[in-house]
Specification:
Distance between the termini: 22 Å
Number of strands: 0
Largest sheet: none
CATH class of the largest domain: Mainly Alpha
Number of domains: 2
CATH architecture of the largest domain: Orthogonal Bundle
Structural class: mainly alpha
Strand content: under 5%
Number of helices: 13
Helix content: 55-70%
Order of helices and strands: HHHHHHHHHHHHH
Mean pLDDT: 79
Radius of gyration: 18 Å
């Protein structure tokens, strides 16, 4: 995506889903059983959203929110780069974070404070998917999956298809769903975010811990 495309809204995701449902019986069944994809307005700041994703990635669905809640409690509810950086490593480990995740969160906080990673909402809104991904993946522990989750669920970008996501791969193995290779299959789709979001509740719920990094 070179130019910034219109963001996902309830109206345009519903319109896209209806278009796809007319072309694909699998998506038609998804919309009937699950409903239409929904992208609620984010309540986290961009930094807090990334902290949540890093904390919860590669964790069982039940454990992920528990550990994140412990971290937010340790930060007294203020998930900011400054507060995270002064939090002792021991406190982070007691919250349930591994050494690698602790290092990732500290690197994200340091880069945000230094300006190497600019998470200002206005600046993010002007950047392409590729630019946002390049900046985020420079942070220790943030890979393509984490960047795609941020683009999809926080920035509501319309052309995200997380082929490395485990839940998406499980969905593709279900008879009648989306067999790989996905890029070729998706070339004619108006928006890939809607179908990809719809796949998770049909297989493994929200994309908590379902991707690599």
């Amino acid at each position: 995506m070179n130019a910034i495309e219109p963001l996902l809204t309830r109206a345009n995701t519903r319109q896209a889903a209806l278009l796809l449902a007319r072309r694909d019986p699998v998506i038609a069944r998804l919309t009937q059983v699950i409903g239409f994809p929904d992208f609620p307005c984010p309540t986290d700041t961009p930094f807090a959203a990334l902290v949540r994703t890093i904390t919860q990635q590669q964790l069982a669905t039940a454990a992920a929110p528990t550990i994140h809640t412990r971290l937010v409690t340790a930060l007294d509810g203020q998930v900011t780069p400054g507060r995270l950086l002064v939090l002792p490593g021991q406190t982070l480990r007691e919250a349930g974070l591994s050494a690698n995740k602790t290092a990732s969160l500290q690197d994200l906080a340091a880069r945000t404070l230094s300006g190497d990673v600019n998470l200002d909402p206005g600046r993010l809104a002007q950047q392409s998917d590729e630019t946002v991904t390049a900046h985020l993946t420079a942070v220790r522990g943030i890979g393509l999956w984490t960047a795609q989750m941020f683009l999809l669920f926080h920035l509501h970008r319309p052309d995200i298809w997380p082929t490395g996501d485990l839940a998406m791969r499980r969905a593709s193995l279900t008879p009648g769903r989306f067999p790989p290779p996905w890029p070729a299959n998706c070339s004619a789709w108006v928006s890939r975010s809607g179908p990809s979001a719809a796949s998770w509740p049909g297989t493994a719920g929200r994309p908590v811990g379902s991707g690599p990094t």
